[in-house]
Amino acid sequence: MHLQAPKGMSDVLPPESGRWKETIRKAEELFDLYGYEEIILPVLEQTEVFLKGIGPTSDIVQKEMFTFEDRGDTSLTLRPEGTAGVARAFVQSMAKYPMPLKLYYQGPMFRRERPQKGRFRQFFQLGVELIGSAKPVADAEVIALAQDLMAALGEGRIDLLVNSVGDSRCRPAYSEMLRAYLDRMEDRLCQDCRRRKQTNPLRVFDCKEPGCFQVVQEAPRITDHLCEKCQAHLEETLELLGQAQITLELDKSLVRGLDYYTRTVFEFRSPALGAQNTIAAGGRYDGLIESYGGPPTPATGFSLGLERLLMLHSGERGKAERAGAYLVAEEAEARNRAFILARELRGRDIPCDLDCLDRSMKAQAKAADRLGYRYTVFLGPEELASGRLTLRNMAAGTQESLSEKELIARLEAARSTASKENE
RNA sequence: GUGGCGGUAGCUCAGUUGGCAGAGCACUGGGUUGUGGCCCCAGAGGUCGCGGGUUCAAGUCCCGUCCGUCACCCCA
């Protein structure tokens, strides 16, 4: 029997893992720049958290959650997204914190879907939540932050789509209007949309069937039926984003799958991806925290799919480059010296490595090249006899004979040059 | 949950009307380069996804099953 990772869950191997780490590090730098602090949450929540937050009729809750009974009395679920957990933690422990609260989170999310390009059962999200402000400037800030993330970490064209889905005042009336319209057009809708019409009429806007597309062209848009306050909120948000020189498209058919969204919703999409082309998405959720039993608290945020973001970087894989040295040694005595020298170098923060497979000098030199070390140190028979070591600069192909002391000094000097270059 | 395509060496794949399981890359040893990259020689590496069936004979044909992939559904 072959052991393998569960369906839709993959190992992130080096050197890919290095790119992950680097991307996460840059994102965190940006979060910090905007004044967000990390909240570290459990990967499991009581199932109730997601039922109430995401909505019992949503697909995520209906068929995509990894849910199990914990010793028979509590139903637990692997988190399918991050916002519900943040809201739960807020109500549990942070309701008295000074507002606004600016939080970011990162980690794996889980949805039991059929995997395809850009969609996995375990996927890694980075997200931010700005809690406590109902003002358009809050929406504009998280969108601006997301935009900066795209600019710093994305590649190629990335489109920003924005819309408003209204609030508890204007959305119910609109939903009725839309459903009535769709009822009249029923015979032109596909099977899926006839079902959607009942469960979540807004989603008909997402359908790719040509017939439905035509029907939707003529359909009333939520954006044209917002109440006064939602309308003003949208206009102010767009105004701020315009002033910030952020280019976007007001997409009146943009809707989102999670029930908790109110007013502003947005998505960043790349045409370079497959069918799953949303890299980051989010919006406002003014009712969520109150629905968890907390004080009425407006909030807005977004999350980003790391795998999808990284998929944009096609094939560019530079050879790994390492400061420091690879130590090549032939005979047993030389190998022992290399081992001691490696400890000495590492103690001085100089990266180094050496053979542990008893391989030939040639194979070791090859390894030095493959691993990308800037220097190779040779402890061959000649070096052993003379007591001096050979330091070879791999890029230049030059080398010199040095005492161990001189060699260490040389590598230390090179290390500080290297760290300056990286800044 | 539904559908299309696929599964042969670590990776990418070839394998004829059923007839001894192959190539390139990577890997290991060696030659050459003063000691890596280029080149040359040699070597190691395979339950042909798994189970059943047809056949003298199955990687190849049939059935089932698992896994992967892309799309639908839905979503980061």
The CATH superfamily label of the largest domain reads Bira Bifunctional Protein, Domain 2
Number of distinct helices: 15
Distance between the termini: 49 Å
CATH class of the largest domain: Alpha Beta
What portion of residues belong to β-strands?
15-25%
Largest sheet: 8 strands, mixed
Number of strands: 16
Number of structural domains: 2
Helix percent band: 40-55%
Assigned CATH architecture of the largest domain = 2-Layer Sandwich
Q: Residue-averaged pLDDT, rounded?
A: 89
* Low-confidence region ranges: none
Short description:
This protein is α+β, with helices and mostly antiparallel strands and 423 residues long.
Task: Give your account of this protein's structure.
The protein has 423 residues and is α+β, with helices and mostly antiparallel strands. The chain has two domains: 241 residues, BirA Bifunctional Protein, domain 2 (2-Layer Sandwich), CATH 3.30.930.10; 100 residues, 3-Layer(aba) Sandwich (Rossmann fold), CATH 3.40.50. The protein contains 15 helices and 16 strands. Helix 1 runs antiparallel to helix 5 and helix 5 packs across helix 9. The longest helix is centred in the first third of the chain and has 18 residues. It is elongated and about 95 Å long. It starts with 15 loop residues before the first helix and ends with a helix. 34% of the residues are buried. The protein binds one RNA strand of 76 nucleotides through helix 3, strand 6, strand 10, strand 11 and helix 11.
